[in-house]
Amino acid sequence: MKKPLLIIIACLFLQSCWLHRNDERGDINPVTSSFEPLTIDREIFESTIAIGAPREIEEAGKIYVNGDIVFINELNKGFHVLDNHDPKNPANILFIEIPLATDLAIRNNTIYVHHAVDLVAMRLDANSIEILHRVRNVFPRLNSPDGFLAEDFDLGENQIIIGYQSLN
């Protein structure tokens, strides 16, 4: 009984390898995404970090505390900087505009930010921001909402995906 059952299972397993009449590569229609990537040129992308006026928190992400300064991520838009000397009344002092930013860390007064596909090291003063170093393409590109990889789209090396637009 075991031997015939094993042969049947092996035949079923190997059946997927057999060619059928319509299995030629030219007859297969590739599945395409329902979205197209929205991109920005790398040169423009790298100039998008700036200091702005304080604003209301709309969609908070991660929170990072460094001494009396609190950084609150505004999802994919940047970071709110709050002065927390008086914890009962923190003051929203400025907003660091960093499109597609999701996280930051601080070490020795250097702020490290996840900026879309890049890792950026910067220094923040009261009225200015200095980019110290940028490591390009450390993080993966943004994938489409329907699961297609960024590599599935025909994009140039200097095109940064900033979002997706529905084709429907």
Q: What does it look like?
A:
The chain has one domain (34-166): Lipocalin, CATH 2.40.128. It has a five-stranded antiparallel sheet, with no helix packed on it. Strands 7-8-9-10 form a four-stranded antiparallel sheet, with no helix packed on it. The chain has a two-stranded antiparallel sheet with strand order 1-11. 11% of the residues lie in helices and 42% in strands. It has 168 residues and is mainly beta. It is built from two helices and eleven strands, in the order αβαββββββββββ. Residues 25-29 have low confidence and may be disordered.
The portion of residues assigned to helices is 10-25%
* Average pLDDT metric: 88
Q: Tell me about the biggest sheet?
A: 5 strands, antiparallel
User: Over the alpha carbons, how many angstroms does the gyration radius reach?
Assistant: 25 Å
Q: What series of H and E elements makes up the topology?
A: HEHEEEEEEEEEE
Which blocks of ≥5 consecutive residues have pLDDT under 50?
Answer: 25-29
Query: How many strand units?
Result: 11
Q: Briefly note the CATH topology name.
A: Lipocalin
Portion in beta strands: 35-45%
Question: How many discrete structural domains?
Answer: 1
Which structural class best describes the helix and strand composition?
Answer: mainly beta
Shape: elongated
- Total helical segments: 2
Quote the distance from N terminus to C terminus: 55 Å
What is the CATH domain class? Answer: Mainly Beta
Write the CATH architecture name: Beta Barrel
- In order across it, which strands form the biggest sheet? 2-6-5-4-3
